[in-house]
Amino acid sequence: MMIITFLPEPPNFLQSRPHKKSECCSCLCRDFQWLSHLPITGELDGATLRQMAEPRCGVSDEGSQRIWSQRVKVIFTGGRRPQHRGRRSASQGEKWSKRHLTYQVVNWPQHLSRGSVRLAVQAAFQLWSNVSGLVFQEAPEGPADIRLTFYEGDHNDGASNAFDGPGGTLAHAFLPRRGEAHFDMAERWTLNGHKGHNLFMVTAHEVGHTLGLEHSPVRHALMSPYYRKLGRSLVLSWDDIVAVQQLYGKPLSNRPVRLPGQVLHAALQQWELAELQSQSQTAGLPLYCQGVFDAITMDQNETVLVFRGSVYWTVSADGGVSSPLPLRQRWPGLPQAIEAAAFSPLDSKWYFFKGRRTWRFTGSVLDPTFPRMSSDLGLPRHPDCAFYYAPLGHMVLFKRSRYFVFNLKLLRQEPYYPRRLTDWTGVPPGTNGALTRPDGRLYLFKDRQFWRFDPGKLQVTRDGQWAEDLSWTGCSNIPQSNNIL
């Protein structure tokens, strides 16, 4: 069984072989180090432990080096591929005996529309059919060869494979013939946003496992054990293509089609925007009311702006909510999704943050010298949220367990920062948005929860479910059950 997990515990990683403890540690450490491009020492040194904490597949990499070596040998010798009978393929078979396979999405994740999920899954399967002799067809009902299912917690795969909520295990899949891939329902699945985990990329990786592919040591391969974001480069590496073609042959045209990530990224954005616009005309409530957004802020007119992926919504002071609006239409030059956003009443400018860069706009015009590297401003990469904080007269950025104070006049971090987030009594790490209301109170958000921070008392004075409890978020018309049968 293949498991994608974040922050795997090293002891669990070393429990999958019935050898003596020292032999187990040495062999598995060597396999892990080989796949991770580390010096092969067989020891749990500091570099190995740090690499184990990176997003990756949580199963043992035992056998991956042998399988990859056999694959490369076939390339250079033109010989027959040796029959592999490893620990998983012995009972389940290493490939499908047919070339036409059906798939089915059994149920659906939260926070994404069914239409965009269906298109993302279709693209994940097509990624593999473009470079192999396989043909995939969706089977909306009835039996299917490969089934994709979203679960929470223990789902009868054994206690060790129970999903553990946000973070931790993302998904796992079985090799051919069982034909199942399971995804954690509690994860924040996304198609465009940087926050959360890209459903298309995780699905494409898991589909590879359901076809019989093991992990690859090639750093940028889709079947690398490490979770990959959707970037601009080609999604499938040469090693991914060789692996699937050795199992199922070349495509009928004999010309593999390799798509760069930027093409798929643009398609996902287009699909999601179309679905959002369609939903806004029928559902009556914006999609972010389900509990997920990338950033939130408020302008000088007390209009709340909520950002998600390539779009944003405005909520007027009287509670009117706009349809989803393209982010780059108002702020040309921004990336398609941002991680943090804040309007500053001090200089009436908009600040946006993503990855290593910071953008500053006056109205809809990008200021000269921007975007700038966040490190040049003394700011962190990938901030959780940003907001203007009047008691300090500066902008504040949160990242994990620390916060940074940014002087907007000097465009540099204030001395003696960053500091520990414990200064903000009651505020949890990992908040994904923050804004100050006209009464001076600061509201911070994390998934469906909010915390109200009182600057005078220097502590959280209220918390709850923001979509239900805060009418100014534009979600106050969420239908409530009346328990009438």
TrEMBL record:
Binding-site list for Ca(2+) 2: D145
Keyword Protease among UniProt keywords: yes
BP GO terms, sorted: collagen catabolic process; extracellular matrix organization; proteolysis
Residues the entry annotates as binding Ca(2+) 4: D294
Binding, Zn(2+) 1: H155, D157, H172, H182
Active site positions: E206
Any GO molecular function: zinc ion binding
Residues given in the record as Ca(2+) 5 binding sites: I296, A341, A386
InterPro entries, alphabetized: Hemopexin-like_dom, Hemopexin-like_dom_sf, Hemopexin-like_repeat, M10A_MMP, MetalloPept_cat_dom_sf, Pept_M10_metallopeptidase, Pept_M10A, Peptidase_Metallo
Binding site for Ca(2+) 3: D164, G165, D184, E187
Residues annotated as binding Ca(2+) 1: E187
UniProt key word Disulfide bond: no
PROSITE patterns named among the record's database cross-references: HEMOPEXIN_2
Keywords: Calcium, Hydrolase, Metal-binding, Metalloprotease, Protease, Repeat, Zinc, Zymogen
Name of this chain's protein: Matrix metallopeptidase 28
Source organism per UniProt: Oryzias latipes
Gene from which this protein is expressed: MMP28
